[in-house]
Each structure stands twice: as structure tokens, then as C-alpha cells.
Amino acid sequence: MPLSLFDFLCRAADSSALAVTVLLLLAVILVNGWTDAPNAIASAVVSGALPFRRAAWLAAACNLLGSLWAAAAGGAVSQAIFTIADFGRSTSTALAALCAAMAAIVCWAVLAWRFGIPTSESHALVAGLSGAAAALPGGLSNLGIGPWLRVTVGLVLSVVLGAALGRTISGRMEKSQFSSSRLAGGQVCAAGAMAFLHGAQDGQKFMGVFLLGAALAQGRQDWETFPRPLWLALLCGCVMALGTALGGKRIVASLGRAAPLTPKSGLAADLGGGLCLLLCTLLGLPVSTTHVKTAAILGAGRGGDPRPVLAMILAWLLTFPACALLGFAAARLFLILL
């Protein structure tokens, strides 16, 4: 039976934990659009192809379209998030842990935005969910081995392939002859494609969490028979688009300092990052748009300031343990307060 918006709202009204989880998840999606999506337009802005505000509106529209396309095309990435951990069959404790995970992710995302560091809400989502689930009876045995393996493969593949494609395409672009107008037009199209794929990737992840909350409210966690409505993709896409429209100018500036881009290297970074993100999405691998695009920019750019790069690497290394610990601690606290 399809899950209608009215049914979902009724379930949220009946469960305060689900209602709070939904509000926190909407905040996570908004912050994701604010902090993750700017990576899709960074090279176009840094190289001068688009002013930041116009690029942000382009990314917002393409984010929404990407989220809708992903919902219509299937939900392999959503499934990985839905099954990343077993929250048990106790509705109250499961929803409390899920609520704690969302609170941990919001805290981490706001800290990252405050310091202008392009961390990954995608990896924060995986870590926060896993940490919260580990706080429940069963501990680490609650974590899904298969989904975690897909996350690990996606993490390694996205960084290595993104950097390799950025460097390879940049080398070929430098030898080619294009007019400035063609390069600028190519960058606008490539930035739109990157934002579209960001919506396809991250829209699926957030749909997975919404569906997980609705399933846990019924005391179940079966992906195969649980309905996946189109209205949910529209909701995720709209909130993400709103966050993108608000902009994340600090993060674009950080990436610009890490690897100064010419129009050619900027286009190469967009093409390399887009190809990598498309491949991972088609394979159903949950990956970070931040990591993919940053790797492609570093591969395509030359001679930047190493300090932003080191700060990014440190933030990436901290995301998994920090969000897992935050999720675990918040879940323990929420369970005590039940």
C-alpha cells in the first residue's frame, strides 16, 4: 500500500520522537544543500564562469530535478542508508536513537559550516546512524556489514577516481583550443550536471532516512515491501534546493584557495567529478559529493595553498569517529530521558 503524505503526517503526529526526527532531518537536508551543494558549483565560480548567486540558483534547480530522477530510477542508495544499521523492533527506543543521530549530524554540520570546511553530510549521516544504533542493545552487531562495505568502497573509489579523472581531463584540456565563451558555457552545463547528480545521490540518502523513520514507527525495517513514494523525493529535493539557494560562499572560497582554477581546469574538474559521481550513483554506492568534487578539483588544479587541503583532510578523517561518538552519546542520553 502506498505511503501517502497524509499517512506519514498522521504517524508523525502520533509519535513525538518521529516528529522531532522529521524536523531534525529537514534541518540536515537544509544544511546539506547549504554546505554540500556549493561544491558542485565551486569550479564554475572560482574560475569566473558564473557569479556565485546565479550559480547557487542553478544548483538549487538541478538539485531538485536530480532528486526526482533518482526516485523514479530506483533506490539503491536509499536502500544502503535504510539498512545501514538495525535499530531493533522497539518503536520507542528505535525512534529515540534515530532522533539522536539526526541531532548529532546537525551539530557537526553547523560546526563545519562555521569554520568553512567542506565536510560531508553523507558520511556524517552514515556515522551518526551507526553510532546511534550501536548505543542500542546489541552494540556493534547492529551495524550492517553489506551496506558498510558499500560505503567503504564508495569512499575509496570516489576520491581516487575523482582525482584521477580531474587530472587526466585537465591534461587533455590544456592541449585543446577553446574560445572563452565555449569554456564558460561548458562550465555552466557541467556545474548544472554536478548539482543534478548531487541531488540524485543525497536525495536518495535522505529519502532512506525518512522511510526508516516511518518503518520504525511501525516496528519494522523491511526494505523490500516498504513503499517509496514520489512525494518524498519532491520534499527532499525542495528542502535541499532551498538550502542551496541560501548558499555556502565560505566553502566555495576554501576550495578556491586549495587549488586555483583556470576555465580549462575548472571544466576538467566538473567533468571528472560528474563522471565519477554518475558511476557511483548507477552502482548504488553512497558517496560524498564533497569528496568527489574536492578530489577532482585537487586533481585538475595546480599550485594552491596546501593549508586548506590539510584542513579538509583532517575534517574528513574526523567526520566518521566524531559523528559516530556524537550519535552514540546522544542516543544514550535520549534513552535515559525516555
From TrEMBL:
Identify the stretch annotated as signal peptide in this record: none
Q: Which residues cross the membrane?
A: 15-34, 55-82, 94-113, 125-145, 151-170, 182-200, 230-247, 267-289, 309-335
Pfam families, per the entry = PHO4 (PF01384)
Q: Which GO terms describe its biological process?
A: phosphate ion transmembrane transport
Gene Ontology CC annotations of this record: membrane
Its localization reads:
Membrane
Question: What keywords appear on the UniProt entry?
Answer: Membrane, Transmembrane, Transmembrane helix, Transport
Instruction: Please give, as recorded in its UniProt entry, the membrane topology of this protein.
Output: Multi-pass membrane protein
Record bears the keyword Metal-binding: no
InterPro entries per the UniProt record, alphabetical: Phos_transporter (IPR001204)
Keyword Nuclease among UniProt keywords: no
Q: Which GO terms describe its molecular function?
A: phosphate transmembrane transporter activity
Kindly provide the name given to this protein in its UniProt entry: Phosphate transporter family protein
User: Which species is this UniProt entry from?
Assistant: Pseudoflavonifractor capillosus ATCC 29799
